[in-house]
Amino acid sequence: MTGSTASRIAIIGAGPGGLICARILQQHGITATVHDQDASRAARNQGGTLDMHPDSGQSALREAGLLQEFLELARPEGRQMRLVGRDGRVLFDVVPPQADTEDGNPEIDRGQLRDLLLDSLKPGTVRWSHKLTHAEPLADGAHRLHFADGTTTEADLVIGADGAWSKVRLLLSDATPVYTGVTFVETGLDDADVRHPALAALTGDGTMMALDNNQGFVAQRNSNQHIRAYIGMRTDEDWHRKAGLDLADAAAVREVLLKEFTGWSGDLLGFIADTGTGYINRPLYALPVPHTWQHTPGLTLLGDAAHLMSPFSGMGANLAMLDGADLARALVDNPAIDDAVRAYEDLLFPRSREAAAGAAEGIEGAFAPDSAARTLAHMAQHH
């Protein structure tokens, strides 16, 4: 196979990991095309806020030459972490000093981070409305990619950055995501400081958690006075169907959730009752730990496609970006793609195993009968 600079590289998925990989490759004169199923960058909301860790997310941004632009967008005050009891009392509150934003894990909205990465790429790098249906192996590790719009393309290296339900992973592994036993119901508060001052005050400037007896609330401060809230439950994956609940019926969802959280403080129940954005059911899935695959020429994975884990790792997007940066660097440093991918996977497997094991332990502790005491002890130890 020819060297990286002359090879056809296809990245499936325009998330943070795939985009940072493409950016670093372009900086070194290596062309990569990103294929994404969304119709455009504005086709859907990108989700909540992320904290960028110095040794992973920020390191990848530095490698991509984008750290300063990130720091100009980041919210250092978003590092605040607050634990609240089911009675609404604040049990633990860490407010970080307003120092250099690189000192710690400053927050940034997912949409802002994605726009930063997209704007750093050459025009035409991302091909929108390119939903991969399957990849057809060819000779010498190359693959023909088939998209839902009927188009095809060929690549010498296919990088699966296509998330939890990755199509590329099907060529490398028979592992499938498994339900963790915990579901989040997402909702939100717009203009929170003005319209919901009590909930805004309870949330603070960063993340507020209230966890007890297999239930809980997580509220995150986003930019522009928006608070994104998650109502968490250890429950059946099809809990809503068993309750005869239509998830599109916001009033019915509200009624069921309020009943489910009987006994919690009225302040916390406001995250259920006072929402103006409706409810989104988000069961949490994870890949088996460890998840590895036999090295296969012309294919590899990064991010959730490689190591989907619960959000209680705090590492999802950070690991994806570190994956993307390390893979790009390996492709820059190794003229043979196969050698580059082997070097990258040697880094990927041990660190993703450790992070995924920690995430599994984290969600077990956060949604347990004694989760309030366990979470308080964890915060006191680590903060």
Description of the molecule:
The protein has 383 residues and is of the alpha/beta class. It has two domains: 4-76 and 104-176 and 287-366, FAD/NAD(P)-binding domain, CATH 3.50.50; 179-286, D-Amino Acid Oxidase, Chain A, domain 2. It is built from 13 helices and 17 strands. The strands form four sheets. It has a seven-stranded mixed β-sheet, sandwiched between helices. Strands 7-2-1-11-17 form a five-stranded parallel β-sheet, covered by helices on one side. A three-stranded antiparallel β-sheet has the order 8-9-10, with no helix packed on it. A hairpin with a 5-residue loop joins strand 8 (132-137) and strand 9. Helix 2 (57-63) runs parallel beside helix 11. The protein is globular, with a radius of gyration of 21 Å. The mean pLDDT is 92. NADPH binds at residue 44. Residues 9-198, 298-332 form the FAD-binding domain. GO terms for molecular function: monooxygenase activity. It catalyses: a tetracycline + NADPH + O2 + H(+) = an 11a-hydroxytetracycline + NADP(+) + H2O. Its cofactor is FAD.
Defining key terms:
single chain; 383 residues; alpha/beta; FAD/NAD(P)-binding domain; D-Amino Acid Oxidase, Chain A, domain 2; 7-stranded mixed beta sheet; 5-stranded parallel beta sheet; globular; TetX_monooxygenase; flavoprotein
